[in-house]
Amino acid sequence: MRTMFAGASVTLSIIMAAGMAGAFFAFSTGVMPGLNAARPASAIDAMQGINQKIQNPVFIAAFLLVPVMAIAAGVLLLTLDEKSAAVLFFVAAGVYFAGALVPSFAVNIPMNNALDRAAIPADASEAAKVWSDYSGRWTAWNTARALFGWASLLAMSLGVYLWGKSD
Fold first, then answer.
1. pLDDT tens digits, residue range 6-57?
2. In angstroms, what CA-CA distances link 68 with 14, 16, 85, 109?
3. Cα–Cα distance for residue pair 112/137, rounded to 1 Å
4. Quick one: CA dihedral 24, 26, 27, 29, positive or negative?
5. pTM, 2 dp
6. What is the Cα–Cα distance from 31 to 23, expressed in whole angstroms?
7. Is residue 88 a contact partner of residue 156, using CB atoms and an 8 Å limit?
8. How far is CA 3 from the centre of its chain?
9. I need a labelling partner for 53 at 20 to 30 A (CA). Which of 3, 32, 75, 150 fits?
10. Angle at the Cα of 164 (from 160 to 167), degrees rounded to 5?
């Protein structure tokens, strides 16, 4: 039974971490460059809509539960005497927390909230300044979140490898 729960928590950890790293990557490499190519007022309007719609239960659960599920996997792996694999899941939780969640709450989400409160400037040059001030910094931090998401996923993958190797 513990093996089944460990397998489920490992699987959910990996799926959520991969999904979040992929979402961060897609924003940095596709969404933001696409918005940068649009008229700044349109980019602001689109990002405000994205910021509102992304706050849904599926996204928020995946975003917040990666480290929780990784810790659960680590604990369950410890109960199976899989210490090396467990440590890697604990590392994965810490990497995701420090590199994806902390920047989100310290930088990206406050920037989103400020953009959401902003009225879209009618003046094109003013809109361009608002968007320019937002886009570059937001994307840089978002790219860091993708990289840390991948690092977390890599630690989980190594944990699965070690778990499988011990059998």
1. 999 999 999 999 999 999 999 999 999 999 999 999 999 999 999 999 999 9
2. 12, 11, 16, 20
3. 11
4. positive
5. 0.94
6. 10
7. yes
8. 27
9. 150
10. 150
